[in-house]
Every structure is written in C-alpha cells, then in structure tokens.
C-alpha cells in the first residue's frame, strides 16, 4: 500500500513537471523533482553463526560474499527545504544451499527483506549529478528455512505423519523449520544519481544496515530461546537503480 501511494504521487508530479519544463529551460536554484524506480542490489550479511550450524548438518555453507536483492523505491524533493528529499523503499533477496546425503535431501534458504522511509540531503557543490547522503528508517525480517526429506511424498503420508504418536514423529525423516527474526533498522546511505536526461536517471549507492531487535520465532510464531547474541541482520549493501520521473540536479 505504501509503495502504491508513492507510485501514484510520483505519476502526478511527473506529468505536472513536464508542463513546467516545457515552458522554461532554466535550472532551478536547488535540486528539484522526483521519480520511482527499480533497484537491483547486493547485500553482505554476516553468516558465520549460521554456517557453523549448517556445516554440522552436512549442508554446504552459504556464501559470505553476499547475494542479490531487488526492490522498488521512489523519492521527491521538498520545495520548501532546499536539497532535502523524502522517499520510500522496499527490498528483498535470498540465497540457498542444498545437498543429498544417502537419499536424504537437505536444504537451507536464507532471506532478508524490509521496507522503510528515507530522508536525504543532496550536496549543493555538484551540479548536473545528484550526490546525496542520508538515512533510511524501517522494518525488516531475516528468515532461515531448513528442510529435510526423502524424495516425493504421498498425500496420505503427509497427514499420517502429523497424526502419528510423538515417538514415531521424532523418527520421521521429513523435517521443516522456519526461523524468523523481525527487527527495526536504520541505514546510513550515500547515493549518486546520474541523469540520462530530464526524465530518466541512473543510481549507484551504498550503505550499512544496522538492526535493532532480537525477537526470534519458529514455524507458527513460537518463541525461540537461546539464540546466539551475535546473530543479526547487520549488513553492508550496494545498490543500483533506474528511475523515471523528472530530475533537475
């Protein structure tokens, strides 16, 4: 809903500013405009604690070099506060590893996602490009899904496993766990926007996600205790993007 509102507002601004631009070629005395775009990125969380557990299960370790993310974001400059722009972003991505040992399939899927509101200041010393520093505040989640099974399963076996007595259930080779950590985050950022023309701009940026909150749950929101204190979603990231709107840097 939040991103739909941004999209709607951006469309209105876009067509309004086309009319303004058609009447004058003069630069504004401060960055002006706004837009919406797609954001491919790369995020690098610390996976050492998770990898040590996966190794004990015989599952290959997740890559410490990070993984691909994608999202949508938008922003617009505030006319009454020069060089200040507000925006919003939503993003997510995942990485996985799997292995088959003696006919038993094991898989781990790690994912990060989030969304928030950004506020940035565009440096006034550079014209034509927009170099902005700021922060994003929002809510995110880290999830680890663990699977173990032996090939295909029949419809009746799925229900019979759930209906089995506790002793039989503990011996089952079919196991599924979904661990989730919900948190608040703050992300200091720096972004460089390079306009291709007045209506399309390319972005490259970087930041570091700082998270707050150690509320872990498993499966149907059952609380998890004893989670290592060093396990969090603090992450470096690199972001790119292509935006459509109106841009006067």
Continuous helix count: 4
Secondary-structure-derived class: alpha+beta
CATH fold descriptor: Porin
Low-confidence stretches: 2-27
CATH architecture: Beta Barrel
User: Oligomeric status of the shown chains?
Assistant: single chain
The total count of strands amounts to 10
The arrangement of helices and strands along the chain is: HEEHEEEEHHEEEE
Average residue-wise pLDDT = 86
Report the radius of gyration as a whole number of Å: 23 Å
The biggest sheet, with number of strands, parallel, antiparallel or mixed sense and barrel status, is: 10 strands, antiparallel
Task: Explain what you see.
By secondary structure, this protein is α+β, with helices and mostly antiparallel strands. The chain has a single domain (2-14, 33-248), classed as Porin (Beta Barrel), CATH 2.40.160.20. It is built from 4 helices and 10 strands. The chain has helices at residues 2-23, 48-57, 155-162, 166-170, and strands at 32-38, 41-45, 67-77, 84-101, 104-122, 130-149, 175-195, 200-218, 222-223, 235-248. Strands 1, 2, 3, 4, 5, 6, 7, 8, 9 and 10 form a 10-stranded antiparallel β-sheet that branches. It is elongated. Residues 2-27 have low confidence and may be disordered.
Keywords:
alpha+beta, ten-stranded antiparallel sheet, disordered N terminus, Porin, 4 helices, elongated, 249 residues
């Amino acid at each position: 809903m939040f991103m739909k509102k941004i999209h709607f507002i951006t469309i209105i601004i876009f067509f309004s500013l086309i009319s303004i631009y058609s009447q004058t070629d003069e630069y504004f005395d401060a960055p002006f405009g706004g837009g919406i775009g797609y954001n491919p990125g790369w995020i690098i969380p610390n996976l050492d604690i998770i990898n040590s557990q996966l190794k004990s299960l015989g599952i290959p370790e997740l890559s410490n070099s990070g993984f691909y993310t994608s999202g949508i974001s938008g922003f617009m400059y505030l006319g009454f506060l020069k060089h200040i722009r507000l925006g919003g972003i939503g993003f997510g991505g995942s990485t996985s590893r799997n292995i088959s040992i003696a006919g038993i399939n094991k898989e781990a899927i790690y994912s990060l996602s989030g969304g928030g509101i950004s506020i940035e200041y565009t440096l006034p010393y550079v014209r034509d490009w927009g170099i902005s520093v700021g922060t994003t505040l929002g809510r995110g989640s880290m999830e680890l899904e663990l699977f173990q099974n032996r090939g295909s399963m029949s419809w009746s076996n799925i229900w019979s496993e759930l209906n089995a007595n506790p002793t039989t259930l503990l011996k089952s080779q079919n196991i599924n766990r979904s661990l989730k950590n919900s948190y608040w985050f703050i992300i200091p950022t720096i972004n460089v926007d390079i306009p291709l023309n007045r209506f399309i701009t390319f972005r490259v940026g970087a930041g570091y996600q700082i998270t707050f909150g150690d509320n872990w749950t498993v499966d149907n929101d059952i609380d998890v205790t004893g989670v290592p204190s060093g396990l969090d979603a603090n992450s470096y990231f690199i972001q790119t993007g292509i935006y459509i709107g109106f841009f006067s840097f």
